[in-house]
Amino acid sequence: MSMKKKLAIAISFCLAALVFAAEPTAKFITTEAAKKDTVEESISYLKTQASKMTVAAEKRATYIFLASLQEQMALYDDAQKSYAAAAAIAAADAEGMPKKSNEQIVLEAIRCALSCGDYATADSYLNSAVRNSKNQKVQAYIKLYTQWSALCRADSVEDIQEPIVMLQAYTKVESMSSIKPALLLTLWYITGDSSYSAQLTSAYPESVESAIVKGDVQLLPTPFWFFVPKSGEAEQGTGSYSVSVETSTVSAPSVVKSTASEPTAASSKISKWQLGLFRTESNAKLLAEEVKAKGFDVYVTSETRSSGTTYYLVIVREDKTGNVADRLRSSGYDCYGIE
Fold it and tell me: How far apart are CA 193 and CA 104, in angstroms?
């Protein structure tokens, strides 16, 4: 090989190395995303940057951050896809970014799939390599999410009897102790049995699940939690005290902190409140008519998920008083801000 060719090859390698080194890191990209004017702009920016990245660890970390942001915005279908994209990348954790094992990421994808009612996708993740995990805590979540998937598929009270039996059995198994609050919350929610809420608030008073029972935190009306058949009505508290909620990104269901004690701050940033999510338009319209009769500015809109299922959302607009959320909750309607 001539000296000229050798020199040309050496130069090309140097140039490639310079381009490679100049690629922005996940830490830089996520910092830049936080500077955007809106969450939508942040998500769009993260998507664009992630698609361009070539360093596996940085790309993986960026997808994880994107997924967590989408999940916070209740974009569960998008979030599960972003988590799945991250889990598919074989790489270590990026410098300066939160540490996440691929097993944890898959569990988060499962939870998001269930949150948008897509139990088929959740089951496909549950039946992936994660099922062979040697980690006891991961196995506990797999067992929990398997029962959540069964509840998600349930069409009647009869369909939830087997999951109830399994969940009750799990509360007595030592290897499931790390997720016992989630087990008790699920049993309380679908059976209405106050003994489960009593155990929860007594043994785990600082947990997110306990805050839900007390009414300090509200469950978001996602398809899984909203449509699951129930054998009894779980009576939530009205809010015992103001808590600082640190939600787990693995075990806890989708939650939103109650704004009952701070209506002005919450309402000033939110222009609309979602009451419910229905598969049947007529049911959504019935709720909308009921809410309208109580003096609220309400309407029904639809949203079609990637699974092909169309959901009908009941939305209430904020008004000049700035306390629509409080009035809705006082009238017996759970709600959460969407804008």
Answer: 31
Could you give the percent of the chain with pLDDT greater than 90? 46
pLDDT computed for residue 227 by the predictor: 77
Task: Round to whole Å and give the CA distance between 27 and 210.
Answer: 34
Q: Given the structure tokens 């209405």, which residue do they identify?
A: 192
For the chain, the maximum distance between any two Cα atoms, rounded to a whole number of angstroms, is: 87
Contacts with 255 (C-beta within 8 Å, 6 or more apart), sequence order: 208, 211, 212, 217, 218, 219, 220, 245, 247
275-288 residue pLDDT tens? 777 777 877 887 88
Q: Is 316 in a helix, a strand, or coil?
A: strand
Q: Are 227 and 117 in contact (CB under 8 A)?
A: yes
First-residue to last-residue Cα distance in the chain: 64
Give tens-digit pLDDT for 174-224.
Answer: 999 999 999 999 999 999 999 999 999 999 999 989 988 888 877 766 777
For 299-315, the DSSP string reads: EEEEEE-TTS-EEEEEE
Torsion, CA 245, CA 249, CA 254, CA 259, rounded to 10? 20
What is the DSSP code string of 47-77? HHHHHH---HHHHHHHHHHHHHHHHHTT-HH
Q: Are 298 and 291 in contact (CB under 8 A)?
A: yes
Q: What's the pTM value of the predicted model, to 2 decimals?
A: 0.70
Determine the average pLDDT of the residues in 31-37.
Answer: 92
User: Radius of gyration (Cα) for the chain, nearest Å?
Assistant: 23
45 neighbors 54 (Cβ within 8 angstroms):
no
